[in-house]
Amino acid sequence: MVNSPHEAMHRIFQQYPGLFSGVSEVLGIDFPPLTSVTVLPTDLTETSPVERRVDTLLRLDTEDDESLLLAVEAQSGKDPDKPAGWAYYASYLLTKYRLQPLLLVVCQDRATAEWAAREVSFGPRQWPLLTLRPLVAGPHNMPVITDPAEVRKDLALATLSAITHAKHPDAGVILKSMTTALRETPQSIADPLIELIAQGLGKHPAAQLWRKLVAVDLSFYKSYISEEIRDEGRAQRAVEDILDILEVRGIDVPEAVRERITGCGDLEILRHWLRRAVTAPTAEDVLTDE
């Protein structure tokens, strides 16, 4: 199933293709320096009706004239069918592109990461035909970066690290180090990273903390997430103003009306209700269309 954390965990490699160099260094795998990276189509569907898509697919060209195919998969939980699918990707990519394939699985959950990192053999026990060995990036091996100076050294790696550590006890310190570093980063670079982290944190509690940090520390940025946060603040103030006006006027607010007002996040509607709250004879009339 596609969701925001899923998208952020692999799309970051599309937006920052050189990120794999930092990730492979963290994982202790010695690849030659990259000379170029090409984002390739992700559709691995054949003429049969079964559709197969890898999350992100990159061609990596290195200084020693070696070319690799890097398939990046975002994995949110254990799935017994995935290893066979990944093995299919590898054989299909080798057949189609005639380049050696490599699989990187990105996880936010340690148990899922450890499951994904297992070697899986296919074929008879006595003579396995294929062995799948994914690289895995997750909370078990990605660095916990809490120093803004370290964040600045590799913004893309720090962003991926923040996403993979969404459940970390020190998530607040990790995210604060990001906003501190991004304050001194050009907006054209910072905005995509701000939004990737917002997507990557999904519905984890750290997501709300990130939104607050962006609103306070990065309030001068004009990305959609910062605008959205400011609109939420305006909406909350409008809700409070409506209820305050009705209270000052001595108008009783039934629970159903209160819930409708406090549950509304549409700033234009709230502004309309705010104007009506000044003159409406009852709380119900505030919500009645003119």
Describe it for me?
By secondary structure, the chain is an alpha/beta fold. It folds into three domains: 4-137, no CATH class; 148-222, no CATH class; 228-286. The chain contains 13 helices and seven strands. Strand 5 and strand 6 form a beta hairpin. The protein is elongated and about 80 Å long.
Written as H for each helix and E for each strand, in order along the chain, the element string is HHEEEHEHEEEHHHHHHHHH
Largest beta sheet: what is the strand line-up?
1-2-3-4-7
Query: Which spans have pLDDT < 50 for at least 5 consecutive residues?
Result: none
β-strand percent reads 5-15%
Q: What is the overall number of helices?
A: 13
Task: Spell out the key features of this protein.
13 helices; 290 residues; alpha/beta; 13% strand; single chain
Helices and strands in order:
Layout: H1 4-15, H2 19-26, E1 34-39, E2 56-62, E3 67-74, H3 82-97, E4 100-106, H4 110-116, E5 120-122, E6 130-132, E7 135-137, H5 148-153, H6 155-164, H7 171-182, H8 187-201, H9 205-217, H10 224-248, H11 255-262, H12 267-277, H13 283-286
Parallel strand pairs: 3-4, 4-7
Antiparallel strand pairs: 1-2, 2-3, 5-6
